[in-house]
Design a protein that fits this description.
The complex is a heterotrimer. Chain A is of the alpha/beta class. Chain A has ten helices and ten strands. Chain B is mainly alpha-helical. In chain B, strand 1 (about 135) and strand 2 form a beta hairpin. The relative contact order of chain B is 0.20. Chain C has helices at about 1-25, 35-55, 65-80, 90-95, 115-140, 145-165, 195-215, 220-230, 230-235, 240-270, 280-290, 295-310, 320-335, 345-350; strands at about 100-105, 110-115, 175, 180-185, 185-190, 270. Chain C is globular and about 70 Å long. In chain C, about 50% of the residues are buried. Classes of the chains: A alpha/beta, B mainly alpha, C mainly alpha.
Chain lengths: ~260, ~290, ~350
Amino acid sequence: MTALLEVSGVSKRFGGLQAVKAVSFRVEKGTIKAVIGPNGAGKTTLFNIVSGFLAPDAGTITFRGEPVQGSPPHRVSARGLARTFQHIKLFARMSALENVMVGRHVRSRAGFVAGMLHLPFTWSEEREVRARSLDLLDFLGIASLAGAEATSLSYGQQRAVELARALASEPEMLLLDEPAAGLNMRETADLAQLIRRIRERGVTVLIVEHDMSLVMSISDEVIVLSYGEKIADGDPRSVQRDADVIRVYLGEEDA
Amino acid sequence: MFAELFFQYLVAGLTYGAIYAIVAIGFNIIYNTTGIINFAQGEFVMLGGMTAVTLHERLRLPLPAAIAGAVLVTIGVGALIEVTFIRWLEKPSVLRMIVITIGVSILVREAALLLWGQDVRTLPYFTGDEVSSLSLLGARISPQVLWTLGTCAVAVAFLSAFFKFTMLGREMRACASNRDAAALCGLPTRNLVTLSFVLSAGIGALAGCVVCPITYTQYNVGTGLAIKGFTVAILGGLGDSVASIAAGLILGVVESFSVWVLPTAYKDAISISILLAILFLRPSGLFGARGAR
Amino acid sequence: MKSSSARYLQVSVFAAATVAVQLTAQVSGKAYFLTQLTMTAYATLVVVGLSLLMGYAGQISLGHAGFFALGGYTAAALTTWDLGPRRGQAIVAALARLHVLVLRPDPYGADVLTVHPWAAFACAVALTAAVAFVIGIPVLKLTGHYLAMATLGIGTILYSVALGTPSLGAADGISGVPPFQLVPGLQIGGSPSIRVQNYYLAWALVALSMLLLLNLIHSRVGRALRAIHAAEDAASAMGIDTARFKLRTFVLSAALAAVAGVFSTHFNGGIGPSEASIMKSVKYLAIVAVGGMGSLWGSLTASAVLNFLSLRGYFGSFDDAVFGGILILVMLFSPDGILELDLRAALRSLLRKPRPTGES
């Protein structure tokens, strides 16, 4: 059975720094997999490679059975892979709703000519995009903020908008880059619940996180990176007990 | 005969190239200190020449005094520009700064038009006249060419020494390297920025004076020089003044020889085509290794 | 749908305003204003296209006058180039039979065989769009001052070619361009008898363009462009092919400038190299800056006012200086356009004690 996402032997070097070294793993459809590791372990680089922002020096990324390594971000996204960013990148001077509507770009088709001439098919398409986007804001519990300018919202609310935006393309797989960063305990618990609901909707999730409670509570599988290499891959319990992982996080003395 | 012609084109190319290099160095000094591309750079060259002519012809100052005066006046204008338009902007965007300096170059040009009209001006040759020539390696070359190349070389040497050996020069390099850190170290970054404008204006004006007898000057020569100077700066790698010298000479010579294959009317298009080629193919310049921003 | 009816209303109000202006001019005996107002309309076409490019796609263009000139010169050249002597050639005969070429009297009374204005129009716009497409691909990969200088360079090359090519009239440009018969009864030309007609045709073109551009801005494409401008990486992650969108916007704005160039050339009966000059490009830029980049109505208003004053000669010989000054003032105090001017904040920043600033 082919996994939804297969990362095989991926390496990336920046000048003298080997950021990612021969990393391989699989993500099965319908699961939540977490990528953890100390700072500088190469997690965000890995994400950038998978989502198309970087091309790997070596290795392949296979998504839905097709190779996507080296594809530009917009094409990876069109294949069904959506992502959020570590530092929230909402579109300023656009409302929360508009931000989410942009997320629906790949599920709509009105181009320059259709847009300029305001062709009839665009009327229903716009209605549909708007309705779906509102639904998503509702799903995330922030429907009331639809008209607010996106960057004027609180941090937690912006995170929610970003999630809605990523979901708007109806992706098969969602890459979440430290979604709990800056959230308090209650917000993190809400986030965990939300991610579970996202999985229930049929979206596979790959998440980079530092917050261990979140990772342990929602993940089906966890991989641990350290200095660019994968040092553990398995269910949360066994990873937690893995000697290498403990050493990497806590140092040599404690075991 | 062919060799003679070849040599003349070469010398002309080197002369113009030296001026382009000076303009590029001016760009680099300001760019290194502030990150700004000062589009008004070419106007400093124009102001130098035009002011010197006025001081020499109207006020009857002897040539050296006229040149010194022109340099001082242009320095004053440079400092004024910096203080008025640049100094008090907080973290302006690149786009905003380009547009502002374009606006400034227009104002300076229009002021020059108002003051001096459309007349073409020239300074007398520093030594000898239009027809005097020295014999060099069996070919004839105007002494003014030697003045030009010599002055540019001295200016470059002075700047190198300044940046390497003086305290002020080191402070400017610190400012260029990391402005906030320099400020935290107590360096007067705002004044150093003004100084960068002063230096750029100064060498630009000097170059303008020394090349004036050969190329003449007019209120509107600044724009073309700015574009060519920028081309040279990019060609050598933005911020690298040493490379600018080589790049400037190369551009000057290429442009000079281009009239052999293309009509003279398209001469300006040559340098711009080179600029575009560099921007598209290798924005870090022929010698540079930095990434393009 | 609320926003689309708002758009139609805005354009209707605008149309009414153009009628009001014409009637006022008529009544107050200043009917001759219409000539400059017509030229203002064509300049406005360039401005709104540039405003879209700069405000929505976030791309600066310091050479946009070049596209106006490319369109105008192509139309001028094709409609004044006498193919009569080549009548014997097969392709010329074929084109003549297809009515792509027309026989018409030239200013001196002789009959010349030139390209039909509609065919010339199509060629001019197609050529300009193609050029914009080709140069857009490498140019739009650049950012910041590299992009600015590249567009400046393109504009300068086009100007140099116009100025230096004898077959394009060199410094004198091309004259004797015939009027453009759009349909029987409607003609673009400079004759005073059709002045009113030309005024309305020009501003109708502007109104139509505004409608199309406003539609675009409120469509999926407009959202994508705003997204690109706001956060290009994130836009890319949303499936937006940013390079393609920027390129298409660039080509669209260039094509719009070309259309303005063609019509303007027929109206003026000719075109000269100054239409491609850097100063012209700077003027368009200054006007977009005043009106607010991306604010189409703001740019339109700024263009209508400033271009008209400039064409009427109100700025005298200080025309260039005025636009240079405007550019500086707007960029210093109110880079988002005059309507966004926060006078108090601007004054406060002027008087504030200097403190260390970071790199830009």
